[in-house]
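can u do me a favor
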């Protein structure tokens, strides 16, 4: 591998269905990059903090293309901690693929190429990382992007509701609400949303209902 050749440390690449977002239920290739700058209390992918293999961007692109699936998500960990994430995203876009990037929004999102669908997971208080949100990212959101709140308790819900109202997020892009798996009742969160007429979409993590919640590569 040439020194100048773009590369990434990759934890895993696999095909599954998209379990979340407005694309939920669709076949999707996941590229999970290694490394994360946050340590959320409920993290379900801590294995991606350090475990991975350095690969050229070109080899990752070829592997994604071999699945013949038109939807791909770059995730982590936190994919934006690796500078060549943007290079990977652009090369996948150049293939005509629909490219999602899931990010916590603690790092700048504006450097990502046009055409990428950014899913910004704004961390609520129970994550222990809500103070790390880079609020300037909201100004870079477009109608194609999505914002997600993962709710662990009523405090999280009230906090998220305030953020949605303060920044008029529902006027900028799709707003998604989900739960910390096993921590709070989905029914409760839905009832709160209905009571408040919250301009957001509730979602479940479909893959955790189809497979064992602890199973990897799905």
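np, heres the sequence
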């Amino acid at each position: 591998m040439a020194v100048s050749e773009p590369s990434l440390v990759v934890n895993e690449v696999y095909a599954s269905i998209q379990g979340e977002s407005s694309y939920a239920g669709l076949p999707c290739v996941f590229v999970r990059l290694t490394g994360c700058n946050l340590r959320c209390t409920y993290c379900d992918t801590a294995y991606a903090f350090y475990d991975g293999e350095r690969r050229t961007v070109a080899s990752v692109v070829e592997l994604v293309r071999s699945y013949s699936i038109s939807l791909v998500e770059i995730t982590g960990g936190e994919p934006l901690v690796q500078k060549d994430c943007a290079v990977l995203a652009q090369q996948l876009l150049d293939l005509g693929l629909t490219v999602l990037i899931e990010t916590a929004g603690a790092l700048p999102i504006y450097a990502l190429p046009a055409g990428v669908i950014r899913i910004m997971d704004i961390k609520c208080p129970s994550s222990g990382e809500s103070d790390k949100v880079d609020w300037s990212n909201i100004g870079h959101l477009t109608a194609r992007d999505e914002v997600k709140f993962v709710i662990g308790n009523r405090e999280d819900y009230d906090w998220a509701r305030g953020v949605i109202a303060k920044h008029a997020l529902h006027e900028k892009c799709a707003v998604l609400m989900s739960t910390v798996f096993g921590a709070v009742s989905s029914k409760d969160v839905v009832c709160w949303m209905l009571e408040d007429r919250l301009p957001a979409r509730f979602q479940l993590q479909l893959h955790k209902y189809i497979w064992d919640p602890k199973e990897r590569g799905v």
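The first helix runs from residue 57 to 66. hope that helps!!
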